[in-house]
Structure formats: structure tokens, C-alpha cells
Amino acid sequence: PLMNQAVELTAINSVTYKEVAAVLSQLLGREMRYEEQSLDQIREALINAGQPEWHINILLQFNRAFQEGHGSAANNIVRDLLGKAPTTLQQYLERELKTAEGDESNNPFPS
Q1: CA dihedral defined by 44, 107, 15, 46, rounded to 10 degrees?
Q2: DSSP string covering 15-43, please?
Q3: Of 41, 77, 96, 100, which has the maximum CB count within 10 A?
Q4: How far apart are CA 14 and CA 71, in angstroms?
Q5: How far apart are CA 93 and CA 25, in angstroms?
């Protein structure tokens, strides 16, 4: 049914940054919270973190897109293609946290 079609791959549901913080709080056993920042605040924080200008511009574009709602699409296409439900946010974070154990790089923007 989806042969020769361009499709948008998404999760079954979209999540907010506050929901990501809640799942991280549960998994890490400490409070995590999301505090919305303006694009100027984000730029300043990235400059202070020593990020190169090209990387800052890319991250700001992503933030603009998310603020405009471009990251909120959700559909069942992945489930339909794979024949099983895609990984949930909690499953993904559990796996990544387990994989990251012992990683002392502290790099919030690995490439």
C-alpha cells in the first residue's frame, strides 16, 4: 500500500520537552525540568558553551521549527511498515542511558 510513496516517518504520538523532562526525571531518579528559552537566550548559552557559529545556526533553526510546531506531527506509518509499534520515548531513553553509562565525555552535542 505504501509502495513508491514519500512518507513522513514519525512516532505514534508527539511529545513535549516537558514530557521528555518528566520521563528523564523518572529514569534518572532526580528532578529534571524544561524551561523554555528565547532564541537569543539559546544563542547566548551555545556561544558560552563554545559551540561554533555554524552549529549554533543549525540548532537555532531546529528550535525555530519546533517553536512553529513542525515537530509535532504523529502518524502510524512506522508501525504499519514494520508491523510492530515503534520504540517509545521511555524505551529509547532507557536504552540510551544504559548505553551511555561510563561515558565521561559530557558532550551535549555529540557529532
Answers
A1: 10
A2: --HHHHHHHHHHHHTS--------HHHHH
A3: 77
A4: 8
A5: 11
